[in-house]
């Protein structure tokens, strides 16, 4: 029985590889007409699916725009989607699935942790442009020469948060995070930024990680109350942050919640209601009024009923910049040439004109500070 | 002192929620020796149905206690139907098979229900309205115990008493105890095993629905994934207290809630899960059947 099984599987394997070989040679002969495959890795399922979908919607617009004007290098773009649920373990297999198809252009991944793992799988074999991974080490470490991103980095947000704390005259600050890559690095950056600024007299009275999705944050709220903190810097996403704000108000703790772009989401307002009033969040500047952005929004509205989400424009810009660089390089295979064009040429995108620096960060992208006022985000100038 | 008091209230609230879910695990295990991993999902569905019904009934003009209790009633009934169906679909056909088969089926149902809610409802977090009316007599405890915390502890206590009376005083409760002690003998004496098992699932699901409603109110949000972490913690509580034992589940849940709260309060939130699980290991090393578990025959 066992031997027959092995024989059958060998035969099958041979048949499959034969099919693969013939398909491969067919592809080469008609490469110009074949669609250009571009990979997308990100959270399409799971609790952070809304972030991944937001990226995907932006990419869909950019592909539609490129394909309707003749494609890239004369080829239509075909998106190959793989879910990683923002889970590093799944990101590794998603990246393997993408690169095993010979895809050298990847958009994604959605979350910083998953992107770290995925990059180690792609190695030097793909240009990866993320529109939502903000961890500074992705570019600062120098390990990922072919990684680019259109979102501003985390430390851009921390310095804004510290400016806010100083402007408000808070002396005691608690820093909490959700133990995830994104949240923890935000918390550490905020701590470093506060400690570096000794002249301000701001003191970090509490620095802790809490389990995301907890039934309640009562214990840590009791500690915040005990520590006398006037502000809580939250490293993490809106769902936990609104729960934290509710628990704080429940216990009549006055500390103000200060968050980053993970809080700059309408659901933070709808879930938190009155409890998040007066909270602060750093977030992307609102560009939805520009002509390019309006066109993108119009396309999205025609095709989807869901909201665009936080990363829509960043994702569209990431795809547009990548397609433009490939077009100028005249090839989809020479990664160094594509990198050269990404870093040297300025491209017009939905975000406005963009270009990447040598490390892979976007030049010209920035954050603004928002305060929750009457159930809306209102821009604050310090 | 204030910190201690706050941590006590927080621990009691958490423990009460865990207890409501842990009872479902422990009752099912007591009757058919199955760990129903889909139980956390019933709790999640409870939160969703309470949210949906509170929206509908609120739009129909119900307010205050009427809205809370009617939304709660529908959530409980709906979850009871889910629990009953779950048993019929996923576990009954596998009765008498190897013990692993229903266990895998339970994990499968858990994944199925999560993804089903994600697809049919939403992958996003939803805002949950505050359904609990203000409680005037709590005004002296402002900043220590909120109305929702009081409601959670009170509802849990009422549910415990009702469950104990049900099991001790009713005929079907007696049948449940009989099946738990010796299924074969119970069947020989004319106990309808199918009915007992269905009742167990229904009651467990009803308690989980109460938990879902309360936690939705407390966190003001719900999503399709809340059942996972809460289910894990409740399962831990049930094992800690001695799986199969009903008072054990409550004791285990309270120990877990308090230990998490104090670990977070006096050590660091980074270690709250660590402390809770170290405690679990320590207790299981000293008492392998849990705190109140009976060290009698192994139900394999």
End-to-end Cα distance of chain B, whole Å, is 48 Å
Provide the CATH superfamily of the largest domain in chain A. Answer: Response regulator
**Residue fraction in strands of chain B:** under 5%
- Shape label of chain A: elongated
Strand content of chain A: 15-25%
| CATH architecture annotation name of chain B | Orthogonal Bundle
- Helical run tally of chain B: 11
Write the CATH fold name of chain B.
ABC transporter involved in vitamin B12 uptake, BtuC
Q: If you average the pLDDT of chain A, what whole number results?
A: 87
Mind summarizing the main beta sheet of chain B? 2 strands, antiparallel
| Multimeric status of the protein | heterodimer
Order of helices and strands of chain B: HHHHEHHHHEHHH
Instruction: Tell me the domain tally of chain B.
Output: 1
- In which range does the helix fraction of chain A lie? 40-55%
Large-scale geometry of chain B: globular
Broad CATH class of chain B: Mainly Alpha
Q: What's the SSE pattern of chain A?
A: HEHEHEHEHEHEHEHEHEHEHHHEEEEE
CATH-defined architecture of the largest domain in chain A: 3-Layer(aba) Sandwich
How would you summarize this macromolecular structure in one to three sentences?
Chain A has 382 residues and is of the alpha/beta class.
Account of the protein in words:
The complex is a heterodimer of chains A (382) and B (300). Chain A is of the alpha/beta class. Chain A has 2 domains: 34-151 and 289-363, Response regulator (Rossmann fold, 3-Layer(aba) Sandwich), CATH 3.40.50.2300; 155-260, 3-Layer(aba) Sandwich (Rossmann fold), CATH 3.40.50. Helix content of chain A is 46%, strand content 19%. Chain A has helices at residues 2-29, 49-68, 88-99, 112-122, 137-140, 154-168, 181-196, 218-227, 238-250, 266-272, 291-303, 312-329, 335-344, and strands at residues 36-42, 77-83, 105-108, 127-130, 147-149, 172-177, 203-209, 231-235, 256-259, 280-284, 347-349, 352-356, 362-363, 367-373, 376-380. In chain A, the strands form 3 sheets. Chain A has a 7-stranded mixed beta sheet with strand order 7-6-8-9-10-14-15, with helices on both faces. In chain A, α2 links the parallel β1 (36-42) and β2. In chain A, α12 packs across α13 (335-344). The radius of gyration of chain A is 23 Å and the shape is elongated. Chain B has one domain (2-126, 146-286): Orthogonal Bundle (ABC transporter involved in vitamin B12 uptake, BtuC), CATH 1.10.3470. In chain B, α3 crosses α8 (193-219). In chain B, 52% of the residues are buried. The mean pLDDT of chain B is 91.
């Amino acid at each position: 029985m066992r031997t027959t099984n092995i024989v059958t599987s060998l035969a099958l394997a041979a048949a499959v590889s034969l099919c693969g070989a013939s398909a491969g040679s067919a592809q080469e002969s008609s490469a110009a007409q074949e669609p250009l495959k571009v990979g997308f890795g990100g959270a399409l399922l799971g609790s952070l699916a809304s972030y991944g979908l937001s990226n995907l919607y932006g990419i869909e617009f950019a592909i539609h725009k490129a394909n309707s004007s003749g494609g890239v290098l004369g080829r239509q773009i075909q998106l190959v989607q793989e879910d990683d649920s923002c889970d590093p373990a799944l990101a590794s297999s998603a990246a393997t699935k993408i690169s095993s198809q010979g895809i050298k252009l990847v958009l994604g991944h959605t979350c910083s942790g998953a992107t770290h793992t995925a990059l180690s799988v792609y190695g030097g074999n793909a240009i990866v442009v993320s529109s939502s991974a903000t961890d500074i080490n992705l570019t600062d470490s120098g390990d990922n020469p072919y990684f680019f991103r259109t979102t501003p980095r985390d430390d851009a947000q921390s310095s804004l948060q510290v400016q806010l704390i100083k402007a408000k005259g808070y002396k005691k600050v608690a820093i909490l995070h959700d133990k995830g890559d994104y949240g923890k690095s935000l918390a550490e950056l905020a701590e470093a930024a506060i400690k570096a600024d000794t002249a301000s007299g701001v003191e970090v009275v509490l620095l802790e990680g809490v389990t995301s999705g907890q039934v309640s944050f009562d214990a840590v709220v009791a500690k915040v109350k005990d520590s006398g903190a006037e502000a809580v810097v939250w490293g993490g996403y809106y769902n936990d942050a609104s729960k934290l704000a509710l628990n704080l108000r429940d216990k009549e703790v006055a500390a103000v919640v200060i968050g980053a772009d993970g809080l700059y989401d309408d659901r933070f307002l709808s879930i938190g209601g009155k409890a998040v009033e007066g909270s602060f969040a750093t977030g992307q500047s609102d560009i939805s009024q520009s002509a390019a952005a309006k066109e993108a929004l119009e396309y999205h509205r025609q095709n989807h009923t869901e909201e665009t989400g936080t990363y829509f424009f960043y994702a569209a810009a990431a795809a547009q910049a990548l397609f433009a660089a490939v077009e100028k390089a005249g090839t989809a295979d020479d990664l160094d040439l594509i990198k050269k064009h990404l870093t040297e040429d300025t491209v017009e995108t939905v975000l406005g004109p963009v270009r990447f620096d040598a490390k892979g960060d976007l030049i010209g992208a920035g954050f603004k500070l928002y305060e929750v006022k009457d159930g809306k985000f209102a821009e604050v100038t310090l | 002192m204030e910190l201690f008091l706050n941590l006590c209230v927080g621990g009691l609230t958490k423990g009460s929620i865990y207890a409501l879910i842990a009872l479902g695990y422990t009752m099912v295990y007591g009757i058919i020796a199955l760990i129903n991993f889909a139980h956390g999902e019933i709790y999640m569905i409870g939160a969703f149905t309470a949210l949906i019904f509170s929206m509908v009934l609120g739009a129909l003009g119900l307010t205050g206690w009427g809205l809370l209790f009617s939304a709660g009633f529908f959530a409980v009934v709906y979850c009871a139907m889910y629990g009953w169906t779950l048993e019929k679909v996923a576990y009954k056909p596998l009765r008498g098979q190897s013990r692993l088969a229903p266990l895998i089926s339970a994990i499968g149902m858990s994944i199925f229900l999560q993804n089903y809610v994600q697809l049919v409802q939403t992958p996003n977090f939803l805002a949950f309205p505050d359904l609990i009316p203000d409680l005037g007599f709590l005004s002296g405890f402002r900043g220590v115990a909120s109305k929702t915390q009081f409601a959670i502890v009170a509802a849990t206590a009422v549910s415990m008493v009702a469950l104990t009376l049900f099991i001790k005083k009713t005929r079907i409760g007696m049948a449940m105890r009989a099946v738990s002690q010796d299924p074969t003998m119970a069947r020989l004496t004319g106990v309808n095993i199918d009915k007992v098992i269905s009742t167990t699932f229904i009651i467990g699901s009803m308690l989980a629905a109460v938990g879902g409603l309360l936690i939705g109110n407390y966190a003001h949000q719900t999503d399709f994934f809340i059942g996972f972490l809460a289910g894990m913690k409740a399962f831990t509580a049930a094992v800690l207290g001695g799986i199969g034992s009903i008072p054990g589940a409550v004791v285990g849940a309270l120990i877990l809630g308090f230990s998490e709260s104090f670990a977070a309060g006096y050590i660091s939130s980074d270690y709250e899960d660590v402390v809770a699980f170290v405690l679990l290991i320590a207790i299981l090393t000293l008492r392998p059947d849990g705190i109140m578990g009976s060290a009698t025959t192994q139900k394999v």
